[in-house]
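Bumping with the actual sequence this time:
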Amino acid sequence: MVPGVKVRPTTDRVRESLFQIIGPYFEGGWVLDLFAGSGSLGLETLSRGAERGVFVDRSPESVKTVRQNLQLVGFADRAEVYRRDARAALRVLARRKLSFRYIFLDPPYRETFLPALLTYISEHGLLESQGILMAEHGAASRLQSRYNHLSMVRELEYGHTVIHLYQMENPGGVKNASGSLSGKF
């Protein structure tokens, strides 16, 4: 938990359901936990087999908590932690030409920039072709089913919480065939 900060962590129920859908175990790949809070989504992904994680939050308390949690579970050598605004972090990651197999976007529900972030991620190739992006938001806001080459493959509702799962489309507009989430439903 992040002390003294208004952080709305993804509930255990939602996290369990999410990982049942995207897979119980992973074979490598990098994870980006944007708006990391305590880092629980990225840590869970690392514990299930992701190779390396990048954790980003603009709160000093959250960054401190993520670093402590990484040390506690022994993943500090497999992670990078940054105190930065999400949009600035995405620009830096794009300049580094990184791409991620798993991206978690869980901004404060009052924020309205998820569509812009999804568009940027798609335009700059930050999600691998077989990767999965999770966008969590409040039920009062809506996301489109497509942002450039990102296409929604599933929508999950948990009370006031909504999760959209996106994957990249192939250049011809055809969803990924093998290994894609769309094939698991």
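The tokens above came from a reply further down the thread. Helices lie at 12-22, 40-47, 60-73, 86-95, 114-123.
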